[in-house]
Amino acid sequence: MYTQSFNVPDAPDGKTVPLAPSKEDAALQAAFDTRIDADGRIEPQDWMPEAYRKTLVRQISQHAHSEIVGMLPEGNWISRAPSLKRKAILIAKVQDEGGHGLYLYSAAETLGTSRDQMLEGLHSGRAKYSSIFNYPTLTWADVGVIGWLVDGAAIMNQIPLCRCSYGPYARAMVRVCKEESFHQRQGYEALLVMMTGTEEQKAMVQDAVDRWWWKCLAMFGPPDADSPNSAQGMRWGIKRVSNDDLRQKFVDATVPQAKVLGVTLPDPDLKWNEERQHHDYGRIDWNEFWETVNGNGPCNKERLATRVKAHNDGQWVRDAALAHARKQQSRNMKEAA
Ligand SMILES: [Fe+2]
Ligand SMILES: [Fe+2]
């Protein structure tokens, strides 16, 4: 659901991958380049440069990790949702995020990395996930704002991924984007209802917007000038729109929505620029962003510990499923004999 441009390096694993193909691979490389240049799709059985494969595994697994870690801050509110209707909607949304994780882990598995390897990367703290989930959800309004702004930013980021050059990733994103659209709308609608309520409820919405706005702008990743990997991602047809362009689209789309909602976006420099035909906006605190990416945000440790515990607590389910599958298999073999 959520991206931060997905080109943040994971912690080093001690291996190096050559960026240039060997001479023997030159013909295969040429065929790959031709297909990429023609805007064609690369499928799992196709030859691909190791650096392309590695970039995709890192990006798709970071994306998958973001989906399942993203279940945690909102999952905390399922038991405290203000009505049965809101609880049902929130359960459906959180389940969707789990499903997104599954599509994405499956897409990454087609590149030769097992789910166990990817989860080990996440649980050991080596692999990254979107830094947005390392902030707390303090009130019910946070759940609405996450839907409106965080899922809204995710849609901006993910629609271009439906045209990603790697087939399984692109196809997974088509369904994910449809579900993200529901996530964005349910959040915005919940906020619209709160804004017709008491002064206290309105203040709660404004407070949540104030706390999440800048973090959502940072979700698009560092400025283009500081994103050296972006050009290669663009060349490979993995990344279609630059971080700054996506961020600008998000700002332009969100300003009128904030007006309808009746909240103020917390940026004194936010104003329409007639010449550019876009909104100008203020400076993002990248120090805070990198601190959080590197493990020092307010909830990093809590999120990771909760995720590891959930995985360990689910061991009996995996064991039972495997035992059942083995029993089925031996029964089938006996019948076939
Ligand atoms: Fe999602
Ligand atoms: Fe979502």
Please explain how this structure is put together.
Helix content is 63%, strand content 2%. The protein contains 13 helices and 2 strands. The relative contact order is 0.12. Residues 1, 97, 151, 154, 180, 183 line the site of one fe (ii) ion.
SSE string, helices as H and strands as E: HHHHHHHHHHEEHHH
Please state the overall shape, judged from the principal axes of the Cα atoms: globular
N→C terminal distance? 47 Å
Helix amount, in percent?
55-70%
Strand content: under 5%
Overall mean pLDDT score? Answer: 92
The number of helical segments is 13
Q: Summarize the main sheet.
A: 2 strands, antiparallel
Identify the quaternary structure here: single chain
Small-molecule components bound: fe (ii) ion
Give me the count of strands. 2
Poorly predicted sequence stretches spanning 5 or more consecutive residues: none
- By helix and strand content, what is the structural category? mainly alpha
Largest sheet strand order: 1-2
Main features:
63% helix, two-stranded antiparallel sheet, mainly alpha, binds fe (ii) ion, globular, 337 residues
Q: Layout of SSEs?
A:
Blueprint: H1 26-37, H2 50-69, H3 71-75, H4 84-109, H5 115-123, H6 140-158, H7 167-194, H8 199-218, H9 230-235, H10 243-261, E1 271-273, E2 278-280, H11 286-296, H12 300-313, H13 315-336
Antiparallel strand pairs: 1-2
One fe (ii) ion binds at residues 1, 67, 97, 100, 176, 180.
Compact description:
The chain contains 13 helices and 2 strands. The protein is mainly alpha-helical and 337 residues long.
